[in-house]
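so i finally got all the pieces together for this one. its two components total, 904 residues if u count the protein bits. some of the lines might not be protein, just check the labels. i wanna see the whole assembly predicted at once instead of chain by chain like last time, that was a mess tbh
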Amino acid sequence: MVGIAMPAPDRGVLARRDEIVAALKAIVPGEGVIDALTEMRPYETDALTAYRQMPLVVVLPETVDQVSRILRYCYENEVKVVPRGAGTSLSGGALPLADGVLMSMMKFNRILDIDFPNRAVIAQPGVTNLGITRAVEHEGFYYAPDPSSQIACSIGGNIAENSGGVHCLKYGLTTNNVLGLEMVLITGEVIRLGGKHMEAEGYDLLALMTGSEGLLGVVTEVTVRILQKPETARAALVGFPTSEDGGRCVADIIAAGIIPGGMEMMDGPAIQAAEDYVNAGYPRDAEALLIVELDGPEAEVDFLLARVEEIARANRAGYLRVSTSEEERLVFWAGRKSAFPAVGRISPDYLCMDGTIPRRELPRVLAGMRELSVKHGLRCANVFHAGDGNLHPLILYDANKPGELEAAEAFGADILRLCVAVGGVLTGEHGVGIEKRDLMPEMFSEDDLKQQQRVKCAFDDKHLLNPGKVFPVLHRCADLGMMHVHKGQLAFPDIPRF
Amino acid sequence: MTHSALTPTTAEEMRDVLAYAAAEELPVEILGQGSKRALGRPVQAAHVLDLSRLSGVEVYEPAELVLTAKAGTPMAEIEALVAGAGQELSFEPMDFGPLLGEAAGKGTLGGLIGANLAGPRRIKAGAARDHILGLDAVSGRGEIFRSGGRVVKNVTGYDLPRALTGAYGTLAVSTLITLKVNPRAETSASLALNGLSDAAAVAAMCAAMGSSAEVSAAAHLPEGICQRLGVAGEDRPGPVTLLRLEGFGPSVEYRFANLARRLAEFGPAERIGDAASKALWQAVRDVIPFAGSRNPVWRVSVPPASGAELMQRLRSMMPVEGFYDWSGGLLWLQMLDGEVHDVPLRAAIADHGGGHATLIRASAATRAAVPVFQPQPAPLAALSRRLKAQFDPKGILNPGRMVADA
């Protein structure tokens, strides 16, 4: 592993492996416990494949009762647990621990209730994001948050990462579309939050769980809201001579009161790579390409597309095409949606970063990335969610060349520092995981991080759920509970920093 | 009980005040303009922490759709500012003033977050929790912390801003809050259906909300209540079922025609134009039909489709009148005999698909005696207590506001 260290494995736990495996087999019979090295191999990494670690053992529970008993056993015996959905996390959120049980939730794969009158679906956490839409589309409904991995990623993982996608600007992230959930605490207690009604009662623990990256509890059931599919969707493809023009166009569209269903931008290198890959008809001479999709009633879409065209012309658009058929709309998107594999063709490896900035800072950040590209000696292509300022710089490198992965990681860290410096954040949708863990102090003070970790203590006082993720320093809950810390002094210099 | 008011002007002063209060174990009641002071359980505190001098909008960037303001900033100031740029808080926060016997138009940004306000656009636009992006706050430990950010897409760390929304100031006191704002709809209209029974109204609202007309609010007002709102006319004695459409002019016209066709089986659709529609929905939002009385008022949150059945059951059990802010899944109830009926009410909700009831209006003595918020199962209540202890170990922030022992 490069760059990022994990907590040192507990030798005592490693020595007790046989006993732990036997205990898990008593809870989950048959093939639900995987302890052979070769069979654990598929679990050693998630979609952040630069990092790999074999778990102590893999367990695949099938019932809430089994989840509860596994967690209670781990709590009583001080064994760490890493929950895992479909393993599509891009930030290493499901990276196993050598001394931890990896708990896969993929056997929780059923949709339990489809309630059209209340526009809600209850699903188990292993159901894929797209699986929910598939289950309701015959009645004209869909589930709005649409991460690019939606064909594979699980709804439970979406909760853990507060996933988003192209539709987020208009329809919100996972957190805005989840109504309730059932979860199991590390103590084995089963708790229900929210439901088909709108308001969660008491403290908004549903909000805390969403995006908590598997550190607070294990989700066993999810209630999501479904929406009626828009009557129609049409897209405009707009090319600009500079990224500044494109950025200004985005701002003007929003200032005109238009919230598109999706608004995506690609820079020069991404346009070339995508066009080479899918021949979508993108303008190769453009420095910035904007896809603006409007969805809703037909009359509204036509009316707003005319306004978007006016705004684009006023911002020096050199190229403008509006889709006239569903096929054409999909071709517009084909290049954007295949930007990652397209870039994969022009570089042996790439690192996909994920920061959000205030939109107005876009030209400054793009210029900064060009400078960083020279500094680190690596190329960078950009595709991003322009409507909400969520950037995905793709840093191109060759893992077989010594030092290039390290250079790519340093480049990525510099980009995220730049995002924070202009008023943005470290991650817009991929999560902190292990990837951005050590950058957390760029955005948060010691006190900020301590208060977040105190939340963890309320849920998991022994730090057994997914430790080593999100927070760069592992405080003991007893230390975090103390008051009257002297100002300006590091309170506990002996605490391990990874 | 109140002995003195503390009025910090900066986050640092607030920190010093709360660090002192924590060290001395002196409870404080957190107060903006007091418009929601009668909401929740009465607080017993030695001091009032008055946020009125922590006021002012720091950053408003319409093109970024964000606004950052100090917690004590009056909502009236914020609403006027964003309206000037053609924007609004799209969750249309309700104004509790009239219902609680206070003047309308009061309230601060901190209060909006503390009470997680929402309006009839709840299903489409969410509540305050869905629009908060970041905050600076001081915990009950007397420590300043920041969470979230100023951009609309952010998953960095736990979502403390949302978790503090709706916590009634019992976890931390916000000093600076960043909210997402949205463009205000160019125009609106409401489609009214007359004379429907509760069950037929729910069927019509289900059909409307399940259509592609993008209905942004749905309500059903039984006879007596729409008369009080002035929506009932001679030709229309009530009840009235209302569906709101908002957006660009041509879009609203087109969707209105489509929706009227879709709902033809429920009777002819009447059109209520922009100005009248706005006034009507504001009255629904602020529960104006129940203003000006002292009878207990409950807000009941249920799966929308079970509302009519529950209402029918309640009418058979207690002297109650109510209306449906249906799109928010809310039943607003007024107890006509002055009693709260909390036990049978909550039992009936549990029998009809679940949900929860919040006692919104009652005397201080009643609110101290009856659980104002829905009682929680033991493991959930214990977790909530542990969370409170992590933010406010000495229990100095609004003690007792949500539950008796915390």
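Chain A touches chain B through 102 residues (CB under 8 Å).
Confidence is low (pLDDT under 50) at residues 485-497 of chain A.
anyway lmk what u think
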